[in-house]
Amino acid sequence: MTTPTITAFERSPDGGKGLARDMRVRWALEEVGQPYEVRLVSFAAMKEAEHRARHPFGQIPTYEEADLVLFESGAIVLHIAERHDGLLPRDTNGRARAIAWMFAALNTVEPPIFERSIATILEKGEPWYEQRLRTLDKSIRTRLTDLSRRLGDAEWLDGTFSAGDLLMVTVLRRLGSSGILEEYPTLSAYVARGEARPAYKRAFADQFAVFEGSGKAQT
Ligand code: GTB
Predict the structure, then answer these.
(1) Is 102 a pocket residue for ligand 1 (Cβ < 6 Å)?
(2) What is the pTM of this model?
(3) What is the DSSP string of 30-68?
């Protein structure tokens, strides 16, 4: 198989915390043991025609493999999971349920978490800020309460670790220092289990190396 190339921030605004969406793609590739290359892009380069040919919205991550060019982190993780063993169950129903969890992570849980993180950057100091934060925190807690209840004592969301867990853990990590995740010990432990996986650790170290300036770029 051709070695895929992904794109990531040349300088991630998260300071190496692995919160940008290339992290989930790196993690998926590490889980399945697929080596990959990284093309680091600046904010300016992301908006240029060369990168927009890969990504219509001028963002990261993207994924190139032979003549396939993909954008959208969820689609990329699904592609990786479909081409390799280890991220989706073999049985049809289990596979469908794991994909449902992928959509749940991206469509149901991530939106209020993402909105909150944007609000804390762009809306701080605005007269409506406190009210907006309260509204978003309420939506997040509603989701986390249900998610925590569903996970219960289980290790992963539906049987063995899947791409659904991978995406859900990356989404929950985005709560960062908000303190909200810590209100849900079941979910904190779930995120910690994800972060303890060797593949996660390798992916995290690789994106951190970029932040430290020791990451390699193949531009
Ligand atoms: N739906 C797309 C996907 O899942 O791939 C969204 C892609 C996206 O939002 N990419 C962001 C981007 O390229 C980076 S990940 N932004 C640049 C731009 O739009 O011009 C989002 C992100 C950015 C920063 C942090 N952070 O600093 O903590 C975390 C996450």
Answers:
(1) no
(2) 0.96
(3) HHHT---EEEEE-HHHHTSHHHHTT-TTS-S-EEEETTE
